Amino acid sequence: MLTVVASRLLVAALRNKVRRLLSETDLMKKWKLLHARTPEDMPQSVLADLAGKIPLEDKWQQVGTNDAPLMAFTTEWSKRYFDNKELSEAACGLGTKSRFVYTQEPSASGFLVVTRFEHQPATRMCERKSNQEQPELTRLQKPAEIPADKVAPTPPKPIALPPDKLKIFEAFKQQLRSGKDAVPEKALEQLKPVRFETNRKNPKCPEIDSTISDCQAECSLGASYSFSVRQNGGDCEVKAEKQKCIGLSECKNLSQKWKMLRQQPPASMPASHVEDLARLLPNSIPMRARRRPGNLCAVFNTQLSGRYALDGSPLSTDCGEGYRRYAAGGFLSDGKCFFSFGLVEESSICAVNDDEFDDGMLRKHNEIRGKYGVPLLKFDPRLKKFAEYWADRLNEEHECELYHSTPSIHRALVEGFENVGENLAVQCVGGNLRWQKVVQDWFSEILCYRYGKVGNACTADKLPKCDNKFHDEGVMVGHMTQMMADLSTHVGCAYRICQSSCRTASSPTRKFLIVCNYGPAGNIVGTHPFSKTVAEKLQRQLPGAALLPEAEEDDASQKKCQERHRQFKRQKPKEKL
Predict the structure, then answer these.
(1) Which residue in 101, 238, 496, 573 has the most C-beta neighbors within 10 A?
(2) Where in this protein does the record put region Disordered (predicted)?
(3) Which residue stretches of 262-373 are H helix?
(4) Enclosing domain of residue 237
């Protein structure tokens, strides 16, 4: 009976405070009387408006017993706001609405007062001004062209002539069937007009140039032919032109072609590549000189070979990291001959199936969490949708540089979670997207981690097995603590192939961005990311892990660890990809 009386006295005292609260005319002072911690990004005008929505005492709910009647209330939703700015209902853009919840709960000493702000998204999406679809997953680099001064110029294409002019062309060509400049019949048949201009002074002697025939040799040195017609004084001169060449059309095998060119492919080149290039060699290769009339060079370039994977095997798919080969010959500026076997990188990004990505990212998270006794995550479409939104923002506005979203943005877009955690990563890719490796890379931060509360500067350290090569800056452990956090129950991830290329890569690559969001957030300052039992299991089973003993928390240790982090950042500053 005494306990009930005591409870009633406490409730009566509380009600006197409530009546004082309701009679307070200064709306902002009401929050102090309630000892409520107000959201940092809620503007004063919205806080004042919400204080005015606190209901009168007769609207409060009774949540206790008749002997000890405890009370509770929930306000209506606030006005729209975002990032310390009040918004109109019609304004487009990110927005949040909040309400205040007040509850009295029984306790051993009588009762506790529990207060909290609840939030719901109030975003009005603006009309998109640009096409936000993913860029087409095309080849990252076009095949490099071989310098024009090192190869044979592209032969002119034959032109179509009207019947009367074609008859004139054929008549001049017939003159080359005999005489000292006679052209072999097979070569003569191949000659077509590439230029025909009427001579106004002498219409019967037009200026004519023909194509060049194939090399008139089977697998040996030979000659190719062409002819021209020009007026020479009072005569109309038909002149056959002959140049040395190498004919490869009738070589018995592919290796014989290289012998005719007096070239030996590098010993490191796979035999299948050598054969592929031999098939691409032109059947007719001209021999030309530059500055050194007696020094004839084979002038040619093959087409590009089929695509090979980086290990040299043929690529059967249209995507992935790979290259093509070519062979070329010609002369340099000093007249010397050259011959080269070249490589052209040609990589294209392989698209990822969305369902496969979602399942794979969830499976990889849970494979690691489950191994060490952390509760498994569930997929959440709301978190995935937000991850897609933030990935688009980073891609379109920041060239995929890594910037975390803020609690204000979470509240404006994600419903159902008090707070949201986030992990970001970017890779340089030329072919296959190694998205599952990202989760493993986050977890690898465990080798730089000493068990302790989030916010303790001594939890991240350059331990013996710590490799921070791929850390964004200094020594990082926050990705690992978030993906392993037992507070988080759900996850949703998204990826984007960025519009910008990597600046530091030696070969052409594009940025590949991954965003994972977790609900609720796991990196809560002052809490351990997972239990000590999990830490002990990690210590036992993971080679190189040095989680225990737990990181020091005293002020002197914190100062020392903070200074070490400043050194880590100087040694490994943030690098733009």
Answers:
(1) 496
(2) 545-577
(3) 271-280, 354-371
(4) 142-346
